[in-house]
Design brief:
By secondary structure, the protein is of the alpha/beta class. The protein contains nine helices and nine strands. Strand 6 (138-143), helix 6 and strand 7 (182-189) form a beta-alpha-beta unit. Helix 2 packs parallel to helix 3 (43-56) and helix 5 (107-135) runs parallel beside helix 6 (156-175).
């Protein structure tokens, strides 16, 4: 399959495009000269990513967007559709993390994580789905993470958002079986080397580091390119991802208890840090 021919001039929307997986995805898609619509809150950083994509041959616009605002997501979908005349691929990617003991983490922080990671994806799907149905085609890609299957102790809001997102997506897929050319593709990467954990709300009083093995976000970007050309309902990225899913499916109580033990052991040896 010729990826260049498949992706050239396709209109691709990416949320959370200013850093991490979103930035990696923008640069990976840009190689194939599509029409990219890059969204995030930070306009300055978005412009930097857009210039890099432009140098790689993509046609690019940026749309400063707050994924927690449904009106902002509708504006993003309309801006993309007006500019490109279509939306071929919509990538829900923006996400945040807050770590800390559940009762010590402010409830408004749990709410913000859920609004970004779950409601942001729902708002994105809700904004683009009428366009997909009018076109009778389209691909929605959700970057969920293995956290959709494996609980994250000391990240209760994060786990709630990711488990909820998996349920939302499965429900949407069931509805869309009558639309054979509209696809929903869920990605489940394992732990990634991105700025997300450093930007997290941190109520643990400890320095946070991703649990090994840690994978390059470029792997997720490459997976996004593949499912944008050959849609796949679920894709597990990194060898640890599928292993962790199977572990929880076969031994749910043991796996949950083990994740809690691993986290507490890490906190005992981690450097101290004021809450942020």
């Amino acid at each position: 399959m010729n990826l260049y021919e498949e992706l050239k001039n396709k209109a691709i929307v990416i949320t959370g495009a200013s850093s991490g997986v979103g930035r990696a995805a923008a640069l990976e898609f840009a190689k194939y000269k599509p029409a990219l619509i890059l969204a995030a809150r930070n306009e300055e950083t978005l412009n930097e990513v857009a210039h890099e994509c432009d140098r790689l041959g993509a046609t690019v616009i940026i749309v400063p967007t707050d994924v927690t605002d449904p009106g902002s997501m509708i504006d993003l979908a309309n801006a993309a559709n007006d500019w490109a005349g279509k939306i071929d691929v919509w990538i829900n990617n923006a996400g945040v993390l807050a770590a800390g003991e559940f009762s010590h983490t402010p409830v408004e922080v749990h709410e913000q994580v859920i609004r970004t990671n779950l409601m942001g994806y729902i708002y994105g799907a809700h904004a683009v789905m009428p366009i997909f149905k009018a076109q009778q085609r389209g691909i929605l890609i959700n970057n969920i993470s293995i956290g959709g299957y494996l609980p994250v102790p000391y990240g209760a809001g994060y786990s709630a958002s990711k488990f909820g997102l998996r349920g939302f997506s499965e429900s949407l897929k069931a509805e869309l079986t009558v639309w054979p050319h509209i696809h929903v593709c869920d990605l489940y990467p394992a732990f990634l080397d991105t700025p997300g954990i450093h930007h997290a709300g941190n109520y643990t009083n400890k320095v946070l580091k991703p649990s090994p093995p840690v994978y390059d976000p470029k792997l997720v970007a490459e997976a996004m390119v593949k499912v944008a050309v050959s849609p796949k309902s679920n894709k597990y990225i990194g060898g640890a991802s599928l292993a962790l899913k199977l572990s929880h499916a076969l031994f749910p109580e043991l796996t949950t208890n083990l994740t809690g033990f691993v986290m507490r052991r890490y906190f005992k040896g981690a450097a101290s840090l004021p809450p942020t």
